Amino acid sequence: MTTKILVLTDALGNLVRFRLMPGQRNDSVEVPPLIDGIAFDGLIADKAFDSNALVTELNERGARVVISQHPGRAQKLKIDAAIYTWRHLVENFFCKLKEFKRIAMRACKTDRSFEAMIYLAAAIIKSR
Q1: What is the pLDDT of residue 107?
Q2: Which of the following CATH numbers is that of domain 3-122: 3.40.50.12780, 3.30.428.10, 3.30.420.10, 3.40.50.2000?
């Protein structure tokens, strides 16, 4: 069994919020609870998060949608390629997170202890 980590970072690549998901679950399903109650001007994401429901919710919020489109999307959205390049900050965060062996190997037996390790690692990453 695998676990996915869905992460929301700020414009500097620091952890804001995260959710743990089963490895077989679709990523876009957990985005609404992840962004609930947080104000932001835009969302940068990869094509795993390309869903009409998410795009509609972001448009209702007045947030800029910068999501790489799935190749099979019927109606293509215009995205700002210059802004999309900043998605590397999330990837950088994951690279730094995976430097911690307990997180990379998923050594914690419970979700609660795994979440605690992620919070601890994020605090260490931010303090660097």
Answers
A1: 86
A2: 3.30.420.10
